[in-house]
Amino acid sequence: MSITDYAMREAAPDVTYVRGESLTRRSLRRLLRRKLAVICLVVITVFYSVGILAPFIAPYTYTHQNLDLSFDGPSLHHPFGTDRNGRDMLSRTIFAARTTTIVTLATFATGFVLLPVTLGMIAGYRRGFADALINRTGEILASLPGLPMLVLVNATLRPRFEHLVARAEDIIHYHQLSSSGFADYFLIFGVLSLFGWVGGARLVRTQVLTLRGSEFILAAEASGASTRRILFQHILPNIMPLVIVGASSSLGAIALSEIGLTFLGVGIQPPHPSFGALITDGSARSVLENHPELLIVPATVVASLIFAFNLLGDALNDVFTSRAQ
Amino acid sequence: MSNKLTLGILGVVAAGIIALAVVLIVVVAGGGGDKKSATTGSDTPTASGTKTSGSGTTTKAASGELRLRGDDPLFLDPAVAQDAGSALYIVEIFSGLERLDKDLKIQPDVAESYDVSPDGKTYTFHLNKKATYQDGRPVSADDVKYSWERALNPDTGSVTAENFLGDIVGAKDVSRGRATTISGLKIIDDTTIAVTLDAPKPYFLYKLTYPTAFLVDKRQIESNPKRWTQKPNGTGPYKLKEWKLGERIVLEAYANSHRGPPKLNTVRYNLSGGSSLVAYEDGDIDVTGVGLDDLDRIQDPNDKLHAEYTTTPRQSIDYIGFNTNVPPFDDPKVRQAFAMAVDRKKIAEVVLKGAIPVANGILAPGVPGATADDKTKPYDPEAAKKLLAESKYAGKLPPITLAESGAGATVGPTEEAIIQFWKDNLGVEVKIQQAESATFFSDIDQGRYQMFHLGWIMDYPDPEDVLDVLFYSKSKQNNSRYSNPVVDQKLEAARIERDTEKRLALYRDVEKTLIDDAAWIPMFFDTTHALIKPYVKNFTFAPTIVERFHDVEVNR
Amino acid sequence: MDGLGGYVLRRLLFLPVTLLIVSFATFYITRWGPGDPVRVAAGAGFSDPEALERVRHKYGLDKPIIEQYGVWVRDVTLHGDFGPSYRYRDRTIGEVLGPKIWVSFRLGLYAFILTFLIGIPVGMFAAVKQGTWLDPFAIGSFLFFQSIPVLVTVPMMVLIFAAKLHWLPAGGFDGMFSKSMVIPTLTLTMPGVAGIARLARATMLGTLGEDFVRTARAKGLNEFTVIVHHVARNSLLPVMTTVVGLSLVGLIEGAFFTETLLGIPGVGKFIFDSVNGRDYNVILAVVLMLTAAFVIANLLVDIALVVIDPRIRGNRTGAA
Question: Which residue from A2, A303, A310 is facing C254, i.e. has the nearest CB?
Fold first, then answer.
């Protein structure tokens, strides 16, 4: 349950330098030959499809309540039963999947790909002051106690940010921004990204430093290619697979983080459903005793996703590391 | 081989999930009818908020020892402590001139008797000659003067002092740093002290029952100014024998108490642990609060715990407040529409499982002036819709947010039910904003919220403590920014009205005006649900925090 | 060893800088957010702004943040005084935090040891069985435990073992040798095993390929002796040292939820209460303490790795 899960910190050193597109493709092919990895990919794909298509597949909206059907056990209309407020558990689970989809993808893209690649490339290619600055900042961020900082930053930033969003709404005359839960999503993935980029950036930096001395980069430099061209055309394609492999092993931890933060009240706010909220509601003792489906359903769904992420991360690691070759 | 791998892993997953589910189902279903659900509250829980706390310690059970579950107090200085958690212990260790009994009647404490001057402005207290501090030193009039002056002194850092002692002539000069002695206090002899008020205020005695006005020991504080609160020397019936942060608090009877020796030898609080109901069932504690989730089971007459079940109404009210200065709630019609669109009864029955009563007004039962009839606006979606259509915001409501104090994912069901009623009946989408308490109070002070869900616990049983404090236009705690000259005028008159019946009538008028004007939506009153072991005698939950262990007996 | 000495020195010199930056950031963030300890303590009851302001003045909370920070730094460096706790006003920060940390430490100790006691054999087993279905099965089954949120397992275990069977207490902390340790130890241990097992497996696989192992096998030693005497000895220490630092912090954070759910008076839940109560100085002390602990733990790991790693130490391995 820890936010700085082993996987997150471990990701970097385990993946070693891989050269060339062909190897990536070869690794992928090897991955796809593993049945288990394919099953994981299927589980993840199904989960994300449900998340993205939530408004179209959910039989009810997540707020639709019927106080006459409070804690109504599984039935034809409500296959997973209803919660205290008589809301359809199936729909709430589907919409929780949407929340997890948004949070994991946004964090993955920002904190585990975009930020590490940009900062790592700058640090590795520019060297000098930029390198020192990024390195020191990373060192400090990495030595901070993650969870207390997440709670602290969330407690102090959230209200400021919400006021900001409210003001922005007034200016653009669009008032759905805050009710769409945008602020919550943004804060969670923003804060997770803030603390998450360090490992990836280090990995990228090392790769860039190694690649800089390699023949094909020297050749490109000799032929007068611009820095930008070298970075984006020669270096980036070479490090992307590594970054993605490293980051993918953190996806499970990101999904867990949402649950933890929501439990602590600094994550997704009601009435937006999330696995954190569903699990917290479902684990109250009387609910658990009389309606265990309210905990088992969301817990199984989210645990399957995280399990799939963890197994896939393991398999990717195996396939891409030199040791396995 | 690859097939084997896959099968192996899938086997683990399936086995794991099935095992968990089976264990759960077997244990739960196997328990049968008498073992149902439970989560818990601590020693004084409320039905509206389930707390997780519990026990683990099996302490040796002796007669004369009461074992409870509790939380760490923050700071045992009666002048400074503001949290209920600290007050629970303070009322046992310290005492003041007067006290409230379990029925919230004023009883003599350190002061044996008092006289009131004909103009109602001067109270002369005669101290009980048997009254001593727990180290044996007799209480004198000087101690009273010292305690109150210390409470008001800005260096003490008390936020409550001015509120509870500010009616005494000259008290505000001390709290603002303009004087060090209260000019309205006159020591007549060693055990007699006269107190002059700035106006004849009938609720003054009530204010003296609050910890801020309790007696502290000058010698102890001066010899150990920083840490005396860890081993305080008070005048209450119990001494603080041991306090191990996060683990336990042990109170020991003070045999020479002026109220006579307490019947218990010790009160032992366990400060850690999970579900306190489980600890109660395991016989580790003698009293436990019952949370919302366990009520079904406890209220079932067939349950073996049902015989030990007791309820006590609490003097507190849960409400939806409006900021009457900002759109759209500056229009009373909008407020009335919102009030009439919520079926509070249904929410109480379904979401809160009937654990607490729907509020029939602003004054909780037991508060002087409270009446039994329902004064609140009825649930009437049609009328509500009409009111909204007649309001000046008809068809052009700004976005609305309901703010709520709380942290953690479990706070929502009541609010979520409320906003759903507004959506269904008025077609208005209200957003919930949950803020942890620091943010919430800071924002509410600044009038940032349009609408907020909050509770008010009476400090003393007088309507002034809610109506004047929260609705007088110049009150600093007027969160709803409510301002009504008629209400103000009646509140001012009631403050100094010495005829009780006339005074209460004024407050009843104010209450009616506030409800008609929909300054609030009064939602629920509160009830304590608890289990008390049969061998514990005379243990009661008072409607507010008062001394309650003096007469308790435990004969195991 | 010169390079190592220089490296350690550089890291140690950077530590105060880290702490200074972290303390300023934390100081600023806590005070910048809405609310303050005085207002929170007042609650819904007494919010007379003037009275609150007088108390703020008493504690110097009405000064500009920079000035407050200056005072704080001065007190810490000159007197070792981390300032008062705004919630527990008659105690120093050490008195408030000490017992909580001690509880969390004892709570985490079992889990810490158990994680290794389970993780390393599992990893070794997986490495030895590489290529059979038992390898991924071993790691995979513990990855499964890593995938279930503690928020699910703790309530289920409490319901089953405390509320229904009455075998275990429903929470609390009665010392290291009581039944109250069972649920927290299990929930703190299980999620961490997979990570250590994976690392142990990788190191084992690396060692299995080394020359001296092949030599040992060639000498006709039985497989068990080879694994235990030659391989394990050379692969375990690096694993342990690498993960010690990470596990410590991981445990503190894992304890956050376990303590909250079980009502254990440890430092995890306390941090959260302190943030909510805006107990500035306590938050600051906790953050700084954990930061320093983490930096030093990592440094020790780095040193240990250099000292132990066979490749750096030369030919010692062959003699094993």
Answer: A2
Q: What is the pLDDT of residue A139?
A: 83
Domain boundaries, chain C: 1-87+280-320, 96-276
Residue-range definition of the domain harbouring residue B132: 95-227
| Percent over 70 (pLDDT), chain C | 84
How many domains does chain B divide into? Answer: 2
Tell me which residue in A153, A252, A302 faces C29 most closely, judged by beta carbons: A153
Give per-residue pLDDT as tens, C114-130: 888 888 888 888 888 88
Who among A70, A263, A289 is closest to B28 (CB)? A289
Confidence grade of residue A126 (pLDDT, cut at 50, 70, 90): confident
What average pLDDT does this structure show over C4-31? 85
CA–CA distance, B161 with B155 (Å, rounded to integer): 12
Residues of chain A with Cβ-Cβ distance to B423 below 8 Å are: 63
* B437, closest residue in chain A (CA to CA): A155
**What CATH number does the domain containing B501 carry?**
3.10.105.10
B202 occurs within a structural domain: yes
Local structure of B553: helix, strand or coil = strand
| Interchain CB distance below 8 Å, C99 and B1 | no
What's residue C273's pLDDT?
83
- Choosing from B201, B227, B253, the residue where a domain stops is B227
Residue B21: exposed, middle, or buried by beta-carbon count in 10 A (0-12, 13-18, 19+)?
Answer: middle
Write down the pLDDT at residue B53: 36
State which residue of chain B sits closest to C55, comparing Cα positions: B157
pLDDT in tens, C251-268: 777 788 888 888 888 888
CA separation for the pair A243, B275 (Å, rounded): 45
Collect the ranges in chain B with pLDDT lower than 70: 1-62, 406-412
Query: For an interface test with C, which of A3, A4, A143 has the most C Cβ atoms less than 10 Å from its Cβ?
Result: A143
How far apart are alpha carbons B235 and B256 in whole angstroms?
10
In a domain, B448, yes or no: yes
CB within 8 Å of chain C, chain A residues 62-121: none
Q: Give yes or no for a contact between C30 and C307, defined as CB atoms under 8 angstroms apart.
A: no
Which residues 191-230 in chain C show a CB within 8 A of chain B?
A: none
What pLDDT was estimated at residue A50?
Answer: 93
The answer to whether residue A73 sits within a structural domain is no
How far apart (Å, rounded) are the C-alpha atoms in residues B180 and B367? 36
Query: Using an 8 Å Cβ cutoff, are B100 and B209 in contact?
Result: yes
d(CA A204, CA A125): 10
User: What is the per-residue pLDDT for B57?
Assistant: 41
A36–B9 CB contact, under 8 Å: yes
User: Among A239-243, A284-288, B35-39, B60-64, whose mean pLDDT is lowest?
Assistant: B35-39
User: Number of structural domains, chain A?
Assistant: 1
Smallest CA-to-CA distance from B407 within C272, C83, A38 is with C272
Residues of B in contact with C276 (CB under 8 A): 407, 436-438
Indicate the burial class of C74 (C-beta count within 10 angstroms; 0-12, 13-18, 19 or more): exposed
pLDDT attached to residue C223: 72
Q: What kind of fold does domain C96-276 have according to CATH? A: MetI-like fold (1.10.3720)
Q: Are strands B65-69 and B98-100 parallel, antiparallel or unpaired?
A: unpaired
Domain holding A292, by residue range, is 31-57+78-320
Query: Would you say residue A242 lies in a domain?
Result: yes
> Is residue C320 scored above 70 in pLDDT?
no
Q: How sure is the predictor about C46, in pLDDT bands with cuts at 50, 70 and 90?
A: low
Residue B287 lies in a domain: no
**What is the pLDDT of chain A when averaged over all its residues?**
80
Is the CB of C160 less than 8 angstroms away from the CB of B27?
A: yes
Q: Which CATH number belongs to the domain containing residue B164 in this structure?
A: 3.90.76.10
What pLDDT was estimated at residue B173? Answer: 93
Chain A residues 262-281 with a CB less than 8 Å from chain C: 263-264, 276, 279-280
Question: Nearest Cβ partner of C180 from B56, B175, B229?
Answer: B56
Chains in contact with C, counting 3 or more C-beta pairs less than 8 Å apart as contact: A, B
Query: Is B298 part of any domain?
Result: no
Identify the weakest region by mean pLDDT among A219-228, B353-362, C187-196: A219-228
